[in-house]
Amino acid sequence: VIAVSPKITEISSDISINEGGNVSLTCIATGRPDPTITWRHISPKAVGFISEDEYLEITGITREQSGEYECSASNDVAAPVVQRVKVTVNYPPYISDVKSTGVPVGQKGILLCEASAVPSADFQWYKDDKRLAEGQKGLKVENKAFFSRLTFFNVSEQDYGNYTCVASNQLGNTNASMILYGE
């Protein structure tokens, strides 16, 4: 019998899936003797193998299960060969942190809205029911992947009140309210 080192001949492509969906990954390898195939999740929390054959099935995937999955084919003839598949789990925005802020008149004030989402959330700000436009006098809106910052350069009495941050992506939206108040 001629020994042949393992070779991965077919592996699933990177995949993007909505949270709650089912994922099926395949890793086919050749070699002599037939290689043993294992799958593992490359993640700080992951422990050991999650599948000990060519197929990895995940039903009702969660956001914690996103990341890279590594297929390893080994048959003791040579070092195992490994390849990775990236699994992106999409989920609607979730606002993780909002803080009301007290600011004296004439000072600079900041309202912050933090949200996690995949794909990244788009943010909008409202005061009462009026949408705040970028470039409105005395205001600045900064949107990043995971947060939005609303800055008032020179707080006036008229600025005090209730503000709503809306975070949205293709899968949904959520909002949270906070108050800018006088000190």
UniProtKB/TrEMBL annotation:
**Which keywords, in A-to-Z order, does the entry hold?**
Cell adhesion, Cell membrane, Disulfide bond, Glycoprotein, GPI-anchor, Immunoglobulin domain, Lipoprotein, Membrane, Repeat, Signal
Q: How does it sit in the membrane?
A: Lipid-anchor; GPI-anchor
Q: What is its main location?
A: membrane
Question: Does the record's keyword annotation contain Zinc?
Answer: no
Where is the Ig-like domain positioned along the sequence?
Answer: 6-88, 92-181
Biological processes, Gene Ontology terms: cell adhesion
Q: Which domain of life is it from?
A: Eukaryota
Q: What SUPFAM superfamilies does the entry give? A: Immunoglobulin (SSF48726)
Compartments, record wording: Cell membrane
* Record GO cellular component, one term: side of membrane
Answer yes or no on keyword Translocase.
no
Family membership noted in the UniProt record: Belongs to the immunoglobulin superfamily. IgLON family.
Q: What is this protein called?
A: CEPU1 protein
